[in-house]
Design goal:
Blueprint (H helix, E strand, L loop, with lengths): L1 H15 E2 L2 E2 L3 H14 L5 E4 L6 H11 L7 E5 L5 H9 E2 L11 E2 L1 H4 L4 E5 L6 H13 L1 E3 L6 E3 L3 E6 L3 H6 L5 H7 L1
Parallel strand pairs: 3-10, 4-7, 7-10
Antiparallel strand pairs: 1-2, 5-6, 8-9
Helix pairs in contact: 2-3
């Protein structure tokens, strides 16, 4: 029957495609199931793997399948942010906070309120910026660069790295408290 064939085909497609990721291999099916399960939970997610393995696609899938999918998905590659740029990009800044700050800027943390913040290459953050991130994760508050007003933001954090954060913690290169907060 043509209808039964169509239903069977749709079921196979649904099983082998997840938010733009395609995988027939049992290992990919396992990844898909993990994504489905973690998307239902309101927990931080740490995605590890080699460069080019689709960590960003997994992060987007977790967001798309989660309860906050209608809200903002903000992403930044931590390897591209200097220590100074990190605060402005993450927390925003007020007009006049520094040379070139000609207007107020809403940072990623504020834009992601109720949504998802994806930090790619989180292992590249400096220790100073790790402290700043940890504080926001613990207190859900921040102040724009050059500002005085305390702002609130609650968001799901998803991080990705190709580095061994456990080894980095042991070597003093990554904060243990942040590692456990993210993992």
């Amino acid at each position: 029957d043509a209808r039964a064939d169509l239903i069977a085909r749709e079921r196979r497609v649904r099983e082998h495609v997840l938010c733009g990721m395609i995988g027939v291999d049992p290992k990919m099916q396992m990844v898909f199931e993990m994504v489905r399960q973690v998307a239902r939970l309101d927990v931080p997610v740490l995605i590890t793997g080699e460069t080019g393995t689709g960590k960003e696609m997994v992060a987007r899938a977790v967001h798309e399948l989660g309860s906050n999918r209608a809200r903002h998905f903000g992403e930044v590659n931590c390897a591209t942010l200097s220590e100074e740029l990190f605060a402005s990009e993450m927390f925003g800044h007020v007009k006049g906070a520094f040379t070139g700050a000609h207007r107020d800027h809403t940072g990623l943390i504020e834009r992601c309120d109720g949504g998802t913040l994806f930090l790619d290459e989180v292992g590249e953050l400096t220790l100073t910026n790790q402290v700043k991130l940890l504080r926001v994760l613990q207190e859900h508050t921040f102040v724009r660069v050059g500002g005085e007003t305390v702002r609130r933001s609650t968001f799901r954090i998803i991080c990705a790295t190709n580095r061994d954060l456990g080894r980095m913690v042991a070597q003093g290169e990554f904060r243990e408290d942040l590692y456990y907060r993210l993992n």
